[in-house]
Amino acid sequence: MGPEMQLRRRQNIACLTCKRRKVRCDAAEIALPCTPCRRGGLECSPSHKRPTGPAPAPAPAPAPAPAARPRTTVSSTPTATATATSHAGTTHAPRVLPDEDAPYPPETETETETAEPSPGPGQSKEPAISTSLSSFVEQGITNSEWKLFSGSDPLRLVYIGTGCSNLATLVDNEQPGNNTILFPFPAIKQPLPWKPKAGVLPFSVSNDLLHDVGSVPEREVRDALVDAYFRHIHPTFPCISEPLFRRQYADPRNPPPLILLQAVLLAGSHVTDHPLVAGARSTVKSTLYRRTKELFHIRYENDRLYLVQAALLMTWHQENADEVSCNTWAWTGKATRIAFGLGAHRELSSRGPLSMPAWDRRRYRFTWWTLFHTETFAALHFGRPCSIRWEDFDVSDLTSDDYLDPDDNADPTIRRDCFELNIALSYIAQDAMNLFAPRAPRLSTGTGTGTVSASLSSRLASLAVTLPSGDDGFSCQARLNYHLVLLHCHRTNRCDRVYVDVDVDEHRRSEALKVRSEAASAMLSILEIMLAKDYIRQCHFTCNTALMAVVVQFIEDVKLAIDANSIILASGAHAKLGRVIGPAREIARYWPNAEAILKMCQNQHEKFGLVIQTYVNASSPHEIESVPVGVGVGVGGASDGFLKDLCSAYDGHDFYFGQDFGHSYEGADYGWMNMPSFASN
Prior knowledge:
mainly alpha; CD2-Gal4; two-stranded antiparallel ribbon; DNA-binding transcription factor activity, RNA polymerase II-specific; transcription regulation; DNA binding
């Protein structure tokens, strides 16, 4: 056997730590500890595997490994086996969050054994789906206790629907006059361990996938991502409770649900400035997104409210350029359907004999209002129907009693002014979108569309005096959302042009154009402030909506000015279009689809610059000899070039529909992310 074959075999021998972490190990080439273990401060233990063939030359004596904390294992002590019951009464199997030195659970059977939750007297070990409805009729409808079915059994909440549903009619027949809409229901699924493992799920899942979804970054990175989420996102996106999550996160025996932890890490990776993550942000986000998405798809969580919260947090990532079946539009749709099924859209107050605990009502209410705002702005972004209509929910407005932590102390982690402003803007945005609906009444019918528009303007004017004036990131985002809705409310319905005489309606159109131009200028100024103060990374997907609205408006302003032979106005609008490039380039770093808007903006800025320069150089606007290809002088003349730029922006290899955003794993050491072997090959 030649020396090359001996070297190849020696390189295949990894230390035990690197084998568990699935990272490349150089223990066979250098003295212990190996490079990954030395960098991570981990214990480097040699593998018991021995190469075949001639023995290699003796290596120098290994240096002593750095001291490491003892690994913690899951034992069968009472603390480890005690079940944790949530506020809503859902019982979970024991959970153990991996510590810094043990990113994966022990591999031996004796170390991973935990006691199964014992079934209560009213329920067998296997939840009986066939008898759950009978148990609900016999116990659930007439019971006034929130926790029932023996108290320690898993609990499932059921929303019986409106009065036209079969379940609501059944309840009314059993208890006429009972106005309760949310009932406890016998569980139909077994409690789940914190990490998925083979045999737990009712279908086959590969071991690689199970290992991947249960992996988390090293403790230092994990802490940085959690802190980044709660510092830069949570105050205006409070779909989960920070005090509760941090309490669970600090308790290794009762950590937060795995899907929620992965989702928080994903959102945190969008905004963190941790050097390891910032240097490979797209790769880290893609990895955490994959883990969260797989947990969601295999429904590895019995509490459906956690699924709603995880879906909302996944809107902080763009998987690819498909904005129909992926990304924000798809995730808000999934979250809305689950929330409707849970009854989160209903007023969960103390009506009826069953009173939901105050803390659970707060969880539901904050999740609902976060979803309402996110779904509305997603519909506004794409001009598509909103899944949440105001007539379909009766959740009351938030009050001071809602801004409390699980111990009923004031929760200062939420920016109430900005959050409630976003909710108010969502109501206005929905009314504005209704004016553009396919069956909305047209101006020719005389049904008062102008009156509705005037009402929207009045409501926006009343909100203007409440806008936060600070230059912090959350205040800037709130003002950005305000001007975004203001601009959309003053857009002209394209269908109205068929029915309305332009001369008759010229004044209204001219006034709307001025408002749109002022709103676009205000948004540009806000984006420039956010760029200067490094707040762009805190922006949700609505920054893409604002960016696109600004570019479209300035293009319209330039074309109208050129058409009116007003070179001064055209030059001013053209200069604003050029100023958009800086913020657009920064937004594209965090939201890859913004690259398309950036490219369109750059192309249109260059083309309009040539047109304006041609006008300036000519003795008269009517003596222009040639106009750059793709740019016309009239209002509609540039539309072909505009659409071509918008569509061609997706021609790059990173923007194919279905092509995931993110970088290759090849040639980089991501051991701190605990990536499985199938993701790194």
